[in-house]
Design brief:
The structure is a single chain. It is built from no helices and twelve strands. The mean pLDDT is 83. The chain has a four-stranded antiparallel sheet with strand order 1-2-3-4, with no helix packed on it. Strand 3 and strand 4 form a beta hairpin. 0% of the residues lie in helices and 48% in strands. It is mainly β. The relative contact order is 0.13. The two termini are 40 Å apart.
């Protein structure tokens, strides 16, 4: 926003979830983090060229410049697993991983009639809808939207 005039302009497009932004101490540049396809990445915005450059740093979150122009940030990597707890047994079990990968897997929904789990995974490179047997075997990708799916139900 231009403080003198109150005018604003859009600097980026296509980012749904920005996680932190900071001004460079002596360049006309911003650093910011955005979540894309369930992965946090860092970007520079250059005011002179009005371009966004991918820093190619996976997991970069909440960046901050030092006075010397170095970027400090929170490295965000989460192991992802679909878990099961048997709560109807005489002794409640510990959480047991049904599926465990370096891809994100969320929004699990169990269907008793089919004995299957529907879930959202980034295994294909995009957040897509998947289904697997209740023990995690026979994973099948159901959607090919090349977009962010947020819930299978």
């Amino acid at each position: 926003m231009d403080i003198a005039t109150g005018n604003t302009r859009v600097l980026t497009t296509g980012f749904l979830d920005i996680r932190g932004v900071d001004w460079h101490p002596f360049k006309d540049q911003l650093v910011f983090s955005a979540v894309e396809q369930d992965e946090r990445r860092g970007y520079f915005y250059n005011f002179d060229t009005q371009t966004v450059t991918d820093m190619k740093v996976k997991g970069l979150s909440y960046p901050e410049f030092s006075a010397q122009g170095d970027v400090y940030f929170h490295q965000w990597h989460i192991d992802s697993a679909l878990m099961r707890i048997k709560v109807n047994d005489p002794i409640v079990s510990s959480p047991f991983p049904v599926l465990s990968t370096h891809f994100t897997m969320r929004y699990a929904d169990y269907n008793e009639a089919q004995n299957k789990i529907a879930f959202v995974s980034s295994e294909s490179g995009d957040s897509e809808l998947w289904v697997a047997n209740s023990d995690g075997t026979n994973r099948v990708q159901l959607s090919h939207l090349k977009a962010s799916v947020y819930s299978p139900v």
